[in-house]
């Protein structure tokens, strides 16, 4: 078991930290917020109260103008605040469209604990506005939109949008970038009404200067007509006039001990219609990235670079040295796009050259039967170079009820691999066999895909028509691959010397694959044939999916011929195959919706859909080897049923239940039917089985979610469960001989089952200057797979679980702590052999980030890792990373950072996993301790540069 | 957006073929017209007790059987409230104290569940007020206790009118073609004989155009046999009867709030009126819910904007009050008399009825409980009915009816 004392330490660290903060807080303020203030807002001239005026209370002491709380006056024109600090200078500001703002300083007496404004009279804004000194109100209610004026929030001149959002009561910025307003998640964050660099909120919130922002607008988009409260929250960052054009990014380079280096460059530029990013990165510290968006997300002005998706990975095998370059572009032909009028082109390009060196040593224990086990001791050294290029583009046109999407992607990969393996097999009596192999391979592959989707929906601006809509999608995929490989193998059996094998083999493989796919859907056809009210409320659609696939592959294999010192053709393995696959799937879909909406009370909705679909597949294989030739047809009925129920009790909650039943088939591949057996793979010989038939998977899944609609202390949670049964699953029948050579036959067996469970819960507690976020997510998967091992039927049962708990505490902008628990377990059991392997991995992380001074940030990341399994001793180690960053220049554009990684020098990346009838433990080459100094420059400009 | 949805809904409901040309109409008596100038931004506030002599709140009893959504249509008789609820597709009958009497379940009586009943009308038969409703080809008649009196085929019965002027047997149909000419209104007597027809129009001019209004256009004027009538994209209030049509009030709005003069005639607006109004949200594009009580003229103005919409204009002193600005006071137990400004029920419907000097409106229990919470600091002394209502009911209970008797001044 894991050494739990290790994992309690972070909890103690968190507790001590919070206590220190609490103490500091008490020292700092010396007061407890319990004061109240109330009042009534009126127009005295016209003699009515002002409903929906915005009222804000902020601190008014020197240098502190923090907004404490805000309200909208109620139906009686009244406001009432509580939990305000006593004995401190505060400012009340009231704004209402068309009226001059009301601003007044006040102090709540510690004796009375109440300040009553009684009646506040607002004066109508006169036409000669210039005579009035206009102070930007922090909050304005503009129709249904709540607007926060950026200029009313006093922040550091280098603050970004996220700092502004953190200043606004009732808005929570979560650790993962999610933003909630009164507990409700902001589903979309726009900048000037458009998605900003792909829509990742962090790119907007952590880059855009607060000084470039005019206001933050929060509004609701209505989902259910009968429920004014059923809506999704959106946020728009409205930039100041002239600030709609600008650039921002990061140029960074670091060098450290043991020759470690890293360099990143990201530059983003935007104008009202165009957004463009250019990025490049290179390192030898296992910081891996697959696209420009990840680089952009991790190069923000505010970001501290501690994100999980782009940081030195101490757990992966070997050292990887990627060099990446890429760019993205999006152009809005319509400056203010919406759901009914949009014309957008986006283009992405990414190239990565990656070198990887790795080595490992491990031992795999395989159970043969109740008494016998075989141990494989493996040593591996490998290196690879891979160059990949991705280019994709997408055009989207929306015009009223027409949607057209045209997209393409192109992927090219060129790689070189060298691997060296040594395996010694032992049983309880001693060595049984040994194998050495050397592989060298070069490969090139390209993939191209082009697709056009068009859909025509109902035009709600016109009178209803009988034809409700259609959707058509066509795609073509073209894949090419060419590989060469040289394998040297030397297998020695200590039990049966006649089984010794030695190979020196060359492979040349070329393949080309073309697939056309056409999907057509005619939606809600009932009214074409029947009256609106016929068929008991059921409607129906038809769907057809047709595809043609054509794969040609050529394998040319040569063996070194010792006597002649030349490579000669291997007539068995050299081969040409042609596979044609035609798939046709017509479906008839029946739908019915029942709803019960009771105004101002609830809205309940039940949606039912059932699809009857017949899957027809024709598989034709033509090969130089006649035993591979086949012409097979598969036909299966694959029904699908979906039921969704939602219960929205206004002002209370929205619960959603979803139940679905799906079926899918899996057909055997040529490699499973009739492979050409390559004996260079001495330990694993995969045989074919021409009698294999298709498998049928039936899956039942259920999900539940609860969204809180109360305005205070919201709690959201959900869970999912999915269970599947596979009839005639294609599984392995394994024969293992005394030399530990495994001969594997694919067979059809019933009895495969799996179950997956998942759940999550999230809650935030917001205090006056600090915030605690709690997140728990857990999932578990169980699978039962039938198989044969040396003729004995057995079920392999596997159970995997994963639980993540995160407590995240932030205090103003200068302090944050995070405690994370990540627990994963596995358990594997062979029923007939009665053997059980289990293991547990636990990682406890305590992260902290402190800004002791304005431009200094100290970060620490301490992770305790424990790996334990039933068959080995627990391995525990800690990884502690610390960094100190200092910002320079007027705009904080320059950063010096010193990082110490794996400070305790304990990283020993562990191999610990189980499979059907075996488990493997070992160690592999990993990234270890290094120190690095990094210099970063953040170029940024919002609006045109002013001429001096 | 809510507003937009409502208007699109209304637009669809008001189906093609409806209506008219805003040309000068012949045969309209303009001799008694009264000019009213109003600036919707220049309203004053009054207490509810300044406008109403009596304010009564009547919570409608909530039982499993009587539970319904909101009042889409309210008819008031001597001792009954008859309510049409679209959510449950039912007609509910309550007594004047709010006690539930009976329910006519539209889905149950209809042969066609999806096309159940759509509203109802009151008819007089043998000195009895009955509820008449149509479902498909069937015409049902129920008494005020919800008991089925008669079920017949629509052909066997008197023709269905779009509006029946209260206190009379005059029925009105919209947009009928009479002798090759379309008329916005045609009036009939109890036997179906045509009495008069007003506002002829050319159908071509309104075909394929956006004709948007905010609901009904005929309202009881308080004078027996006569009704107020308002038209599309027009600020006039007419009073019609079997004998004549009169222009009663000619309302003038500030230029910034007024439609272009050629809005109906200029072909550049054809088919683009909705788009134009959605872009120009300062504009008011029509009048609805007109009632007159003494010197007080109650009316609503249609707009896609955020401006005030419901007004009370005093014909004597020219004071303009926005209903949403009426301040609750002790006479209303510090509860607002409408939900204007907080919810949408009043804004979308306006006053439901004006019967024998009383105006009727309603709001949800969700609103009532919110208002109670907000006015707790005023320590209202609720009457027995409201005390019991707030004690035994919840925000999920049935709506409450508000009955208001306007002052005569």
> What count of structural domains of chain B?
1
- Uncertain regions spanning at least 5 consecutive residues of chain B: 1-24
What's the total count of β strands of chain A? Answer: 49
The share of residues in extended strands of chain B comes to: 35-45%
What does this structure look like?
- With 948 residues, chain A is mostly beta strands.
- Among the domains of chain A are: 1-30 and 765-948, no CATH class; 32-239, Immunoglobulins (Immunoglobulin-like, Sandwich), CATH 2.60.40.
- Chain A is built from 6 helices and 49 strands.
- In chain A, the strands form 4 sheets. Chain A has a 26-stranded antiparallel beta barrel.
- Chain A is globular, with a radius of gyration of 33 Å.
- Chain B is mostly beta strands.
- Chain B has one domain (2-406): Methylamine Dehydrogenase, Chain H (7 Propeller), CATH 2.130.10.
- Chain B contains 8 helices and 26 strands.
- Chain B has helices at 2-13, 48-51, 106-109, 203-206, 273-279, 345-349, 365-374, 384-392; strands spanning 28-29, 34-37, 52-59, 73-76, 80-85, 90-95, 100-105, 121-125, 128-135, 138-142, 148-153, 163-164, 171-178, 181-188, 194-201, 218-220, 227-229, 236-240, 245-252, 286-293, 296-302, 310-314, 320-322, 353-355, 358-363, 400-406.
- In chain B, the strands form 6 sheets. In chain B, strands 1, 2, 16, 17, 18 and 19 form a 6-stranded mixed beta sheet that branches. A 4-stranded antiparallel beta sheet of chain B has the order 3-26-25-24. In chain B, strands 4-5-6-7 form a 4-stranded antiparallel beta sheet.
- In chain B, strand 9 and strand 10 form a beta hairpin.
- The radius of gyration of chain B is 21 Å and the shape is globular.
- Chain B starts with a helix and ends with a strand.
- Mean pLDDT of chain B is 84; it is low at 1-24.
- The interface between A and B is large, with 35 and 47 residues.
